[in-house]
Amino acid sequence: MPRTAILLPVGLLVVAMTSIQSGASLAKNLFPLVGAEGTTTLRLVLGAVILSLVMQPWKARLSLRSCQTLLAYGVSLGGMNLLFYMSLQSIPLGIAVALEFTGPLALALLSSRRLLDFIWIVLAVLGLWLLLPTGSRDAAIDPLGATLALGAGVFWALYIVFGQKAGAEHGRHTVALGTWVAALMVFPVGLWHAGSNLLAMELLPIALGVAVLSSALPYSLEMHALTRLPARTFSILMSLEPAIAALCGLLFLGEKLLWSQWLAVAAIIIASTGAAATIRPQR
Q1: Half-sphere exposure in the Cβ direction for 30 (13 Å, CA)
Q2: Which domain does 226 fall in, by range?
Q3: What is the mean pLDDT of the chain?
Q4: What is the per-residue pLDDT across 76-96, written as a single tens digit (0 to 9) for each?
Q5: Mean of the pLDDT values across residues 132-160?
Q6: Which helix (H) or strand (E) element contains residue 213?
Q7: Structurally, how many domains does the chain consist of?
């Protein structure tokens, strides 16, 4: 394969990850106005509208059986987004993404039993131990925020499982349909928390920016990259996301991490990269 054929999808994937984390940084500006719940609602509803215009989900062929998988995929997507945004209210962006990343990492490691894979488990546990509120007071993070981020990781793992099944049944329509399910799931929560503030027109520019940066743009770029890169290469590159999130938090939100927290993020990145590069699923 030509060198340029590899560099282009790799570059697009890095742009997609940067876009997602920049969108999360921008979303924090909405928290004082509509809270994390309202922000999640705005992102998913507007994201669903934008994705529908691009992917035309009304052309999908639905059945009762396929709708069950699609429903599970959408609920996973909604739970992942809601818990992740709620975690950002009390912990830095980089730490939230690192904790959330343990969900898909655990899913990958559960499919293998080689000795080498336990090295990645040890590194991931080391990263968690450094991040969770068990150490010194200076390095400790909010327990509720950490729990919410880990919960988002559980939903992320479910999102991967059900996303593969839903994607096989609905193809390119899956993301738009799943986002609508997630939006309908989260909407009552956002409405209860933010009320009529969700309809404030002055929020629309920021909310549209969050929806584009966090949903429409990165999903499109990731799909382009995924179809042009080997799955293992794609997974290895995605392992860089906690580092990108930490840098975005530093640049856009002024969130400075301690050296021990950077070490924890690095340990989780190495564990994820190693697992993606070396893991062999059980037959």
Answers
A1: 34
A2: 3-278
A3: 86
A4: 999 999 999 999 999 999 999
A5: 82
A6: none
A7: 1
Q: Which tokens in the block code for residue 100?
A: 């959330």
Total-model pTM? 0.88
- Within a domain: 247: yes
**180 lies in some domain:** yes
In a domain, 158, yes or no: yes
Using a 10 angstrom Cβ sphere, with 0-12 exposed, 13-18 middle and 19 or more buried, the burial of residue 260 is: middle
Residue of 155, 153, 131 whose CA lies nearest to 143? 131
- The predicted structure's pLDDT at residue 233: 77
Element (H, E) at 102: helix 102-109
Judge whether 95 lies within some domain: yes
Q: What is the pLDDT of residue 250?
A: 92
Q: How far apart are CA 128 and CA 179, in angstroms?
A: 30
Q: Which two tokens stand for residue 194?
A: 């933010």
N-terminal to C-terminal alpha carbon distance within the chain: 29
C-alpha–C-alpha distance, residues 102 and 109, integer Å: 10
